[in-house]
Here is the input.
Amino acid sequence: MDMKIAVIRGDGIGPEIVNEAIKVLDRVCSVYSHKIDYTDVLMGGASIDVHGTSLTDEAIETCKASDAVLMGSIGGDPNTSPWYKIEPSKRPEAGLLKIRKSLNLFANLRPAVLFPQLADACPLKREMADKGFDMLIMRELTGGLYFGERKTVTENGIVTAIDTLKYSETEIRRIAIKAFEVARARKNKVTSVDKANVLDSSRLWRKTVNEVAEDYPDVTLEHMLVDNCAMQLVKDPTQFDVILTENMFGDILSDEASMVTGSIGMLASASMNDSKFGLYEPSHGSAPDIAGLNIANPLATILSAAMMLRFSFGLGNEADAIERAINKVLDEGFRTGDIFVEGLKKVSCSQMGDLVTERI
Ligand code: NAD
Here is the structure.
């Protein structure tokens, strides 16, 4: 297969971890006879340095002309980086919101998996960690509070800020369909998370999800309030398969789910539109504190590349091969610093990429 991939190396550890993912993809291409044409695209601080803004229209066009986008992570330390001294609409994170909206990436898929080899890193009780868990958070990414109207006004002499949380039936329906489809390929369960006891948008969310569920009688649907879900994730994460939720709840819950695995450097993420097009990136940020030291964990980015092969190109065997190679490397006791425990073998970012590549 011929694949056209736009590559956003980004900032901080971004270029280091993307290098390793490309190493692995190149190996997959040579073993399985595929060809990848990579085009570099600037985004985040790297784009601000060159263009004065975090994402240009040309960069978006290059992404649109590709089959998928592979991304490291963008951003710097907001307290010290000059990228945060410019107007907010040009800062690194504005690029993220713009690319999601421009490419219509409304569905964010974030697996939160506790690898059995990393049970020690899990902050939960041992009996829970030993059970292991494997859930996927399906977060709506282009609607809700982050994209609603906002303003700061002075009312009766008091400065007041207003953000708007708005969802249409159409926006809810399309993400719900994605969640049920993904659940069918997993353990056939969707937990839809909302705040229907308070919010109108949540009541519409619940009603629409119930309607979509009628087309998926083989998938179990349950509804959960977001505050309860935040507790259940810590109490018993094994109960979840696919968690379906709106933008802001998903933002918070997916970070919580990642922390429960104990290893943020292991968690992949995909943002997809209606077609097979997607943007694949690790769940973590650009880790400016360890940038350039060759100690970052590249496995989240490598796992994101595996998701890209599976979801955008239908190459399930190749994705399985990457995941098997990662499991083998972990079984053999190799760890980057973030997941290292005494007695195992500590390796650098590039060594981890080499080890995975060699096992494909
Ligand atoms: P972060 O995820 O970058 O780092 C949090 C902690 O985890 C740090 O101690 C870091 O060293 C560590 N860490 C993260 N990834 C790691 C890896 N692969 N290997 C080893 N250790 C790792 O979060 P932050 O510090 O809150 O944010 C830093 C920057 O990243 C900010 O500018 C933020 O806006 C940006 N950010 C970008 C994205 C994205 O590009 N999608 C997402 C989140 C944060």
Q: What stands out?
A: The CA atoms of residues 306 and 322 lie 6 Å apart. Residues 13, 73-76, 78, 93, 96, 264-265, 281, 284-290, 296-297, 300, 338 surround nicotinamide-adenine-dinucleotide (CB under 6 Å).
